[in-house]
Amino acid sequence: MALSLRSGYRKIWQTLSSIKTGVVLIILVVIFSAAGTVILQRPMTEPDDMQRAYSPQMLRILDITGLTDVFHARWFVSLLVLVSLSIIAASVQRFPNSWRYFARPYKSPDENFRRVLPTQAQIPIADEEQGLGAAEHALRHLGLRSERIVRTRSFSLFAERNRISEMAVYIVHASLLLIFLGGIVDALYGWHGFLTLTPGSQSNEVALRSGAVKSMPFAVRCDSTGEETYTDGTPKRWWSKLAVVDQGREVERKEIVVNDPLVYAGLRFYQASYGSTGKLDRLILTANPTSGTGGAREISLALNQTVVLDADTSVQLAEFIPDYVVQDGRVYARSNDVVNPAAHLIVTSQKAGTKASVNVWLPEIPGFAENASSPYTFQPRDLKTVNYTGLQVSHEPGQWAVWAGVILMGIGLTCVFYMVHMRFWAIPTLDSRGHMVLWIGGTANRNRDAFEQKFQKLVEEIKKELKPQLVVSAPTQTATFAGK
Amino acid sequence: MARARAEQHPATGTTLIVMVGLSIAFLLFIAFLNVVKTGSLLTEANLLYAALIFYAGAGALYLGFGVTATDSYIKFASLATWAGLLANTAAVAHRWYEAGHPPFASVYEMLLSFVWTLAALTLVAEKLYGVKVIGTVTMPVAIVGVVLMQLLPSEVRPLVPALQSTWLHVHVTLAMLAYAACALSFALAMMFLIQDKVKTELFLVGTSLFSVGIYAGVLTRFEKWGGLSVVAWDAENKSEMFLSRGVRLLVTIPDLGWMMLLVFAAVAAPLVLYILARLRSDESFINVANRAVFIGILLQSLALIFFLLRARDGHYASLDAEGLYPTSLAASPFILSGLIGGIFASLLYLLLLWRREDLERLLPDAEALDRITYKTICIAFPLLTLMIAAGAYWANRAWGSYWNWDPKETWAAITWLVYAGYLHMRITRGWRGRRAAYFAILGFAVVMFTFFGVTYLLPGLHAYA
Question: Whose CA is closest to B272, among B196, B209, B179?
């Protein structure tokens, strides 16, 4: 029983670690992600649009299978987890072999190895020392430091470069897992929400996408916000001056713009939207006396504010309606967008002890306005409304794993594609006719044709090193070596 | 061999060069007269026009080389490409200076950069890898690109807040480089297949599938009563018209849908005939299929002409709103490039059909092509990775999340997975030759879909391009 359990376990492990499984899983991920881009997705698409696009039965099937929110469906997440497991299994299975290769490099080539190695050459030499010295020299020319390997029955040379490239694949796989890990952490513990602030207000409550409200341990205050536009009216810049208020103290200030968020205690505040609340900040008017003395003057009014115009007259801003409509004998606000504004002013005059109030409407709404009987006429000059800033708030504790994974992947891919692990061996030996030769061999783990050329260059270099020494006598040779 | 041919027909060799040279000189002269009239020499439009003339000359010479294999054509073709690239570089520089940011912010600017990259890569492939015939493919694409640019709104538009980031440039530069490398790997894989003695019929199938894909894409806009919907175009503001935020206003050109349906049937015919030939093992169907390609080209050209005539200017009714609305070619760049691309692919097939032996002689050997394809993907894959990473980092700064499963993002990830699959099969399973070449072609098809298809067919955050 225990045995069959273990063999079952082994079978699962083998299936998981096979490259075939990996490829099948990748194909499944590709198919379902593609489906997720073609089928309308739930939170982004309005329910009305979904109903318009699909028939009720179709929609029900899509909803049940999770195809209307593929990327958050359980089975899709499970698929991604399976991919991760497959990467882990494949790496774990192949790792020990590579590690042995990496940790204990093969330095002294034996006879069998020498026979089968595809890239090799033999150069006749006078003695062991001369051959090895020349090889050492030539390798140094190629920028490789060589190592003398002494074994009981042989004396040889080994040189290599970029051994790390053998492990690069594991770096890439590990980086991918790190990115997945970050994604999983964010899916479990991260959240995204929205916070709307008007200048001067502060809040610590974020409306989450799910509709719930999240309380932050600190509050964010908006000091001011604004928009700059290009001459053609397209938005150029939205900005908000924010302050973080933690336990009653202001701890941080920053002016945020799109592409430059405020970061505090692991939360990020993005400039996401900007607009008008429809509430009035200030109304600028020119007031002209209808009769007699005094010129026009400019006045600025906030809601319910009263300004004295002359000794007897004052004006108060009683109402501001951003988008007015007249219905059933009343003035209503249709929306909060400042598209069709109306202002209600009350002009109060005090003449000979009697107080008289006149309702002035801008624009003049028939039935309400008594503009004609006002001692002043008013022309609207400018309208400043209270604007809000919409902040997107996000908490992504896993993003550091993602960025670390990205950097690691960059390093890993550089090692995989641009670092070639090349190895050279040189060993003095006897050829088939009993002459002493220097056997030289080399391998590279990729880009073999370029390596072939490099190897030829090395052989030429060694031959060149050997040439002058072949003509000169033995004592000078030793002197040369001593000199080096 | 090539030399022998050239000596056999010395007249044709010089005739084409002289003709192309004279045409270039004539066109430049005409352009110069215009310049004298307006008084401004180094404007972007003039530079682009010069680039177009040189690219067209180079394209003619490269094609001449593809057909006749006269070596001297290549020299002059390279020269013309260099000249075109110079003018193109000046246009890019001019644009950059005018706009104050690198030209990546609109479809027009992307095309400007893309054509530049394409011309540069052509010269690189020619000089470094000795793939001389590649200009036959890339130059016509460059010409189509420059022509398209003439139609698109070209004035410098200010950057909307989300695009005001250094990461825009990093992201888009990487995307351009990665996609260009993918395109190169595709062309090399195709050449490998030619050199690897893949049957011409398979290219027939590929060409047919490509055209069928294009017309199927176009026919997603097929409307009731056989109309074809295109985006309405506001000529004054040079922009698309919108019904509401993010929803484009579509107008229906009557009867054009039928035309497209007919062409769809025509380009699908070779595919059907091929399947019939396979099922009945009757080779005579293949000959019919080759003739069907001919008819397909004629009908495709007809469709293009009709489309040009009807969509260029005109007011059409819309299904979603009352009244007539204008449209313009600039409103449908993807349909236009699709139609031209289909004709171009069929022409390439005919070139292969007639001149296969010449092509085989001109190309490097199969093994070298296979190796270069792999190397190109080894360059493309890290670039793709970095492009996605830069995009994610930028999205995190601008939208508040590094991954939104937006269609463009998802398809970029799919592209990445396909190439990752290629690399795994090649490295661990030793996939070489044909299977690897098919994989490279599939990868590029996905790249093209990510680049054009997603923008055109699927909605999402990547609304700029």
Answer: B209
We report the CATH number of the domain holding residue B257 as: 1.20.140
Residue B398: closest CA among A225, A256, A230, A404:
A256
| B401 close to A (CB below 8 A) | yes
pLDDT of amino acid B9: 42
Annotate A294-327 with DSSP letters as a single string: ---EEEEE-TT-EEE-SSSEEEEEEEEESBEEEE
Check pLDDT > 90 for residue A221.
Answer: yes
Q: Could you tell me if B237 and B303 lie in one domain?
A: yes
Tens digit of each residue's pLDDT (9 = 90 or more) over A380-413: 888 888 888 889 899 999 999 999 999 999 999 9
For residue A417, give the nearest of B382, B397, B429 by CB distance: B382
Number of domains in chain A: 4
Q: Which of B311, B330, B363 is the last residue of a domain?
A: B363
Question: How far apart are alpha carbons A374 and A348 in whole angstroms?
Answer: 9
Residue A212 belongs to what domain range? 190-276+389-396
Distance CA B409, CA B329 (A): 28
Where is the domain boundary, B155, B181, B216? B155
Provide the residue type at B265 as one letter: A
Query: Which of A77, A96, A115 corresponds to the end of one domain?
Result: A96
Alpha-carbon distance of B405 to A77, in angstroms, equals: 13
Residues of B with CB below 8 A from A410's CB? 382, 385-386, 389
Flag whether A410 is in a domain: no
- The CA–CA distances, whole Å, from A292 to A289, A347, A370, A484 equal 7, 17, 20, 113
Q: Confidence class of residue B227 from pLDDT cuts 50, 70 and 90? A: confident
B421 in contact with A, Cβ within 8 Å:
yes
Are A63 and A85 contained in the same domain? yes
pLDDT band at A171 (very low <50, low <70, confident <90, very high): very high
The domain in which residue B414 lies consists of 367-465
Per-residue confidence at B176, pLDDT binned at 50, 70, 90?
confident
What is the spatial distance between Cα B369 and Cα B378, in angstroms, rounded to a whole number?
14
A314 in Cβ contact with A346 (< 8 Å): no
Q: Is residue A174 part of a domain?
A: no
Task: Give the whole-angstrom CA distance, residue B432 versus residue B441.
Answer: 14
Task: Give the mean pLDDT of A173-192.
Answer: 91
Sign of torsion, CA B423 B424 B427 B433? Answer: negative
pLDDT beyond 90 at B86? yes
Q: Considering the domain boundaries, does residue B194 fall inside one?
A: no
A461: CATH: 3.30.160.110
Q: Are residues B306 and B319 in the same domain?
A: yes
Domain total of chain B? 3
DSSP three-state, residue B33 = helix
**Contact between A261 and B165 using a beta-carbon 8 Å cutoff:** no
B141/B348 Cα distance (integer angstroms): 12
Q: The complex's ipTM?
A: 0.79
The 3-state DSSP class for residue B181 equals: helix
- Single out the residue of B136, B206, B192, B200 nearest to residue B363, CA to CA: B192
Closest residue in chain B to residue A399, using alpha carbons only: B402
Shared-domain flag, residues A272 and A299? no
* CA neighbor of B243 nearest in space, from B120, B325, B188: B325
Calculate ∠ Cα B108-B109-B111, nearest 5°: 65
Check residue A167 and report its DSSP letter. Answer: G
A258–B398 C-beta distance less than 8 A = yes
B64: Cβ contacts below 8 Å, ≥ 6 apart: B16, B20, B70, B73
Residues B382, B394: Cα–Cα separation, whole Å: 18
Q: Quick one: which H or E segment has residue A6?
A: helix A2-17
Domain assignment of residue B128, yes or no: yes
CA B236 to chain A, closest CA, distance in angstroms equals 13
Q: How far apart are CA A345 and CA A368, in angstroms?
A: 11
Cβ pair A270:B425 closer than 8 A: no
